[in-house]
Amino acid sequence: MRILVATDFSVRSHRALRRAGLLAGPRRGKLMPMHVVEGLGTRQVAQDLREAQRMILEQVAVVPELFRAWCEPIVIGGDPAGAVLDAANAWEVDLIVVGASSDSPERTSGETLKTLVRASPCPVLVVRQPVEGPYRRVLAPVDLSDTSTRALRRVGSLGLADDALVTVLHAFRAPATTKLWAAGISQEHLDGYVESCRTGFAEELDGVLAREGLGRRDWRRRVEEGWPRDVIPRIAMECRADLVAVGTHGRTGLARALRGSVAEDLLSTPGPDVLVVPPPRRTPGRPTWLRSGSSRSPDGQPAPGIAVT
């Protein structure tokens, strides 16, 4: 497994490195801490690159979770989001890990985080909480489409649920509730109608899990009536989830929610870590500076991958 960790040497990126180390270490995965020095081609950038190379080695050396991991730090110049995405494509990484502030992620992570979440070719794990060990409680909202269940598969394949209690959540809207209420149907009948919808969606959820080969897992199921952007944070709090895993580009109902708005809503407010799983994308060609035979980064410096053992 290849894990790319974006670091700016802050406290939040230190958390991201710790989390990535927990994931990579036991599986002997390759971990690539990456720092991007903004700008290209100037003497100051060249000096900053050399200083960043020293700092990233120091940061790797003091993170205990990395002691068993194969680390290859990367320092380049350029645009942070673009450079991380290029590297993720070039090395075909399985996961990007990035840190964000737990109390004000939007202010501290800004457009770089949004760009990564929207354009990443692979899942992005946004670490927002202190790292105290493997994840213990994972919430996985799905809209019952093949696209959204990809998040369930990735939770398992990335090892995020190895030691966790997983709750699979489907949020639904009973389609005729408003019309029935306007027609004067009693609350008792309305409640019965909503429960019949809940039962139908619960059966569909069981069918989806069975088709994905996940039916025998000891995962909890919850089917809740309401808009996803309201239901997901509420259930995450009730479950005391330390990770919420969402897919992007779902179908009608949860579609707009999981196409970015709910993921971004989750990231813009305090809460647990968030795993965003995109649909499969065609991998673009390797950037010029990463193609076979190229040994220099965009600013003309030697490509700075450094193996640390």
How would you portray this structure in words?
With 309 residues, the chain is of the alpha/beta class. The chain starts with a strand and ends in a 32-residue tail after the last strand. It is built from 9 helices and 11 strands. The C terminus is likely disordered. The chain has 2 domains: 129 residues, Rossmann fold (3-Layer(aba) Sandwich), CATH 3.40.50; 141 residues, 3-Layer(aba) Sandwich (Rossmann fold). It is elongated, with a radius of gyration of 21 Å. Strands 1, 2, 3, 4, 5, 6, 7, 8, 9, 10 and 11 form an 11-stranded mixed sheet that branches.
What are the salient characteristics of this protein?
eleven-stranded mixed β-sheet, Rossmann fold, 309 residues, single chain, 9 helices
Short structural summary:
This protein has 309 residues and is of the alpha/beta class.
CATH class categorisation of the largest domain: Alpha Beta
Instruction: Please tally the helical runs, counting DSSP H or I stretches of 4 or more residues.
Output: 9
Q: Structural class of the secondary structure composition?
A: alpha/beta
**Compute the gyration radius: what is it?**
21 Å
- Quote the average pLDDT: 79
Following the backbone from N to C, one meets helices and strands in this order, namely EHEHEEHEHEEHEHHEHEHE
Secondary structure tally: strands: 11
Largest beta-sheet characterization? 11 strands, mixed
* Bulk shape: elongated
What name is given to the CATH topology of the largest domain? Rossmann fold
CATH level-four homologous superfamily name of the largest domain: HUPs
The helix content is 40-55%
Strand content: 15-25%
The CATH architecture of the largest domain can be given as 3-Layer(aba) Sandwich
- Multimeric state of these chains? single chain
Number of structurally distinct domains: 2
Distance between the termini: 17 Å
Unreliable segments (pLDDT under 50, ≥5 consecutive)? Answer: 250-260, 288-309
